[in-house]
Write a structure and sequence with these properties.
Layout (H helix, E strand, L loop, with lengths): L17 H10 L4 H19 L2 E4 L1 H22 L4 H4 L13 E5 L26 H8 L3 E6 L19 E2 L2 E5 L5 H8 L6 E5 L5 H7 L2 E4 L19 E6 L2 H11 L6 H6 L7 E4 L15 H16 L3 E4 L8 H9 L1 H5 L12 H12 L2 H22 L4 E5 L15 E2 L2 E2 L9 H11 L4 H6 L3 E8 L9 E7 L5 H10 L3
Parallel strand pairs: 2-3, 9-10, 9-11
Antiparallel strand pairs: 1-3, 4-5, 6-8, 7-8, 7-14, 11-15, 12-13, 14-15
Helix pairs in contact: 2-3, 6-7, 8-17, 11-14, 13-15
Length: 493
Amino acid sequence: MPAEQTTGSTADIHELTAVQLRDALRTGELSARDVAAHFLARIADQNPLLGAFVTVTTEEAMADADAADARFARFRKEFGTGSAEASGARTDGLPLLHGMPVAFKDLTDVAGVVTTHGSAALDHKPALADGTLAAVLKAAGVVSLGKTQVPEFGLTAYSENRIAPPSRNPHAPSRSSGGSSGGSAAAVAAGLLPFAPGTDGGGSVRIPAAACGLVGLKPGRGVVPSGESSSDPARLVVAGPLARNAADAALLMDALVPSPDNIYLGAVGHEPRPLRIGLTMDSPWSTTFPLTPEPETLAALQVGLEMLEHAGHAVSEAAIRYDNRYPDAFTTAWTAAVGTARISPHREALLVPLTRTFRRRAQQRSAAELNESLAFLRQFERDTVTQYGGWDLMLMPALAQTPRPVGWFTGATHGDEPWPAAEWPGDADGDYRRQCEFAPWSSMVNVCGLPAITIPVYWTGGRPAHGLPMGIQLVGPAGSELVLLQVAAQLGF
């Protein structure tokens, strides 16, 4: 429903797009307090089922919302109401995301709030200061409602751990919402947030976006100055938006990459030129873990292909050759940080089996072995980017399988219910294999530092009320974030 229909009613605030909600807040049709209270009420009602939030910061959120309303009152006194300045994308008086509610993954430090990193092995103490991502978005005017569920240290493609209930898929609560930004994706898909920032080091924005039927954008390396970990030797991690449509994702990108022109949201209103798009099913994991996409994956890819061709783009087959040393090199780089995490020896038994196994292996590797893997990944990046360069964009599935049941990756399900966390099976290698087979087209994009977007083009039951979302992934060259958002918008998302 349009923003102008919300005056005098807060019942349907969560049905507004993020852009509509932004406009309603900036014109005074909605107060930041009413908006925060509305979403907090939805969280209280639905989170017990979904497990999207680990921590809800109600008092802090309401105080921040009141401060935003006071700022708006000062702005209105200076500029008046209904002015061009009030409704514009940016003014000197109001920050870009004035009063907009968000939440942060429980890997991101927010001052005064506990960061658990999804681990029972750590002391859970309030953060002393905002991390870079939280600081950037707070400066843009957001109101933080809390922290969302993640896997331990963000390592996995599902958001389950030993400290809180698993994050569940709003479209089918017996299914996972993906990971590692799974709690944030579930919150957006369920209307507990208008949009959310995620972080992506191997698919952690795109995987949960695809699982939950959202648009998920992974920007290119260095575009967003708010990566998650200082212990990221391969420079894999970047922050990006999870949103219900391309315009909402673009709005959040304008806050993540502040500029006077707010180029992302403005660009979404323009269609891209006809593009040459290479279609590939090749994966660098296929030699280690043979790839068998489900029929739903192929159906989604076909729908995406037809939509792109209908929009005027030329899609052709692309055979990409990946070096078969990639799986070992990526795993070495991906797990390096957990090997150096500061965990007391007497608490290591509290780690989940996958973390404990990969931590031990990382600690047993020499610095020379890590450096050899990093050098290989840089060469892999050069080779892959060169191959992708034959097309404007690369098209591939977002996921090889439909969203998996909660507990499926760990082998900890009995029926639709997961085993208690303390009883998880210890098959770390089986867990990791299942993840790589689930999302075989994600991690190499991080290694290459390229931007990519997932678009929810298909539902297994024909529409959201009757099935599970499936999507496509488009990968572009460095600097193509605008084009990726334009294509998503062109396709109707």
